[in-house]
Write a structure and sequence with these properties.
The complex is a heterodimer. By secondary structure, chain A is an alpha/beta fold. Chain A contains 17 helices and 11 strands. In chain A, helix 3 packs across helix 8 and helix 4 packs across helix 6. By secondary structure, chain B is α+β, with helices and mostly antiparallel strands. In chain B, 36% of the residues lie in helices and 28% in strands. In chain B, helix 1 runs antiparallel to helix 2 and helix 2 packs antiparallel against helix 5. Classes of the chains: A alpha/beta, B alpha+beta.
């Protein structure tokens, strides 16, 4: 397995080498090198913030080509509940689901159905007391990756259950085998995804030997075709079978409220998530039972591959929920929880360490601090690193040079003449 | 010793929203050095509590950290009112924090007890009207 695989891709032709993405990246995982953005793989958590911010649209998520569905005899679409929030005036999910069947899929299976079963299993695990509180949701793969690289001490708190997408895919395949008599591998299951992190979770799962999902299409890519087909549907098929609990997973707080516990926290937006994890690491949130964290603002409805504003989408889903029962899917018995367990244990990584040996790390840290003190502190990003401290860190790690800082270079070269050559805000002027 | 890592932070007593910055930075540095997670937690909690105390009671102060290969020394010094009765102040639940601070969830009387709990060694030097210096030691195993 390639543990540093990520699904965010760069279109080199479109990338101008500007500094928008390096500044936005929450894990300081991007540098501009040779005029192009480049990702430091082991730091990237696939949150997709760079996809969102790139003014050139040079950052994309590696989705599958639509005709890969033709590789399978029976094709199933697996729409994430966040998809339902993308359409105006939708009061019946069946329009969306029926459109998939007219688009070339043989069947459609709601991820929200899987979510309701995962909610059932989560309640069982929460009540068992086996996981130290507060239990942290494992549904957002970007958050799981963030914990793995920056907060490895918190790994034992993560709810060790598969995501609703995986549960839904397993059930969809099982049902299809029964219905068609085909072999499991002849059935293709495709997730309709709001984010890049889910694509990574499919292609290189961290906690499963192999994903149950065969491929993924971005909501924003499939949206135009879906919308056109939906517009022409007059009598949709009766396909939906999930309730408020499942559909609510689309936005922040949905998963937590489905646990029916009082003491929970739901944070969304990557900066908020990091802040909560810092507090959790310092044992400041020990009175909570459950912590739901979503890398995107608003939750999955805020995914970088969605179309609509997350809060608009959330409001639409609230409207849609009014007509739904509480829950339609349940575990048949408690034993089923075991089927939703992880295949592998999650191992922490220490990408923050400056060196493997403490003494060496301390020496580097001293060098880093000294370098940082000598840098101008403008955090201009012209060196290709997001901040002066990040440049200092790159230098001590051997990945950059002091001369990468234009301001240090200016001081080296004849002061007064150079001064007129730098941009106006940075000229020292005459004293 | 020349190969220790020295860190210095000024803790502002003016801006309560910035309380916790020094302990947050120290935590980041310890992660970069590759310290054990439990040690980082202990340092982080003890320093945070002491930092909050400086902001609440002493209008800020200074934090000096000295990291050696086998231990960490942290000195938190302020020029605040001093502690009248150290033994009483060390009791869990005893607090002299003002109401406005308590309304934010601080002032539960767990500050000093928590510092003692999480640090390997703790010394308090205090004089009423002059200030308080807390010296902490953590061993790197």
């Amino acid at each position: 397995m390639n543990e540093y695989f990520h699904s965010v891709r760069l279109d080199e032709e479109k990338c101008k080498g500007c500094i928008n993405c390096i500044k936005r990246c929450p894990t300081e995982a991007i540098r501009v090198r040779n005029g192009k953005a480049s990702i430091i793989s082991e730091r990237c958590i696939d949150c997709g913030e760079c996809i969102r911010i790139c003014p050139q649209h040079a950052k994309t998520a590696e989705t599958d080509r639509f005709n890969t569905i033709l590789d399978y005899k029976y094709k199933i679409a697996l729409p994430a509940p966040s998809l339902y929030g993308q359409f105006n005036n939708l009061d019946n999910v069946d329009y969306v689901l029926s459109a998939f069947k007219l688009m070339g899929f043989d069947d459609v299976f709601e991820v929200s159905k899987g979510a309701e079963i995962v909610s059932d299993a989560s309640r069982v695990i929460m009540n068992s007391g086996k996981i130290p509180k507060p239990v942290i949701s494992s549904a957002c793969p970007a958050v799981v990756k963030l914990i793995r690289v920056r907060f490895p001490k918190l790994i034992p708190h993560i709810l060790p259950l598969i995501a609703p997408m995986e549960e839904a895919a397993a059930l969809a395949r099982k049902e299809a085998v029964k219905k068609t008599g085909l072999k499991p591998e002849e059935i293709g299951v495709f997730f309709i995804t709001p984010c890049a992190a889910k694509i990574t979770a499919i292609k290189e799962p961290l906690i499963l030997n192999k994903s149950n999902v065969n491929g993924a299409f971005a909501i924003k890519d499939i949206y135009p075709a879906l919308f056109q087909i939906m517009d022409k549907i007059e009598n949709p098929e009766d396909l939906s079978s999930s309730g408020i609990i499942g559909v609510s997973w689309a936005s922040s707080g949905g998963e937590a409220s489905a646990l029916l516990k009082e003491h929970y926290l739901a944070a969304d937006g990557i900066e908020n998530v990091i802040n909560v994890l810092e507090q959790l690491e310092d044992e400041k949130l020990n009175d909570l039972d459950f912590i739901e964290l979503n890398a995107c603002s608003g939750g999955c409805v805020g995914g970088p591959l969605t179309v609509e504003n997350p809060y608009v989408a959330k409001a639409r889903i609230q409207r849609l929920r009014r007509y739904l029962p509480v829950s339609c899917n349940h575990m048949e018995n408690i034993e089923e929880t075991k089927k939703m367990n992880w295949d592998k244990t999650l191992e922490g990584l220490s990408v923050l360490k400056l060196a493997d040996n403490v003494v060496e790390a301390m020496t580097r840290l001293n060098d880093l601090n000294e370098l940082h003190n000598n840098l101008p502190g403008l955090d201009c990003g012209v060196c290709g690193a997001p901040s002066c401290r990040a440049l200092a860190e790159d230098i001590v790690r051997g990945n950059a040079k002091k001369s990468d800082c234009v301001f240090l270079m200016r001081e080296k070269v004849d002061g007064e003449k150079m001064d007129t050559l730098v941009p106006a805000p940075f000229r020292k002027g005459k004293k | 010793m020349s190969n220790s890592v020295k860190l210095h932070y000024d803790v502002s007593g003016e801006d309560f929203t910035r309380a916790g910055e020094a302990s947050g930075n120290i935590k980041k540095v310890l992660k970069e050095i590759g310290c054990d997670a439990d040690l980082i937690r202990n340092v982080s909690i003890a320093t945070y509590e002491a930092e909050i105390n400086m902001v609440i009671h002493a209008n800020g102060g200074v934090v000096d950290v000295d990291i050696f290969p086998d231990h960490i020394d942290i000195v938190l010094a302020d020029q605040g009112p001093g502690i009248k009765d150290v033994e009483l102040a060390m009791k869990e639940g005893y607090s002299t924090a003002p109401d406005n601070v308590r309304s934010l969830g601080f002032g539960a009387g767990m500050g000093l007890p928590n510092i003692k709990k999480y640090a390997d060694e703790m010394k308090i030097e205090t004089e009423v009207g002059v200030g308080t210096t807390i010296r902490l030691k953590f061993y790197i195993k």
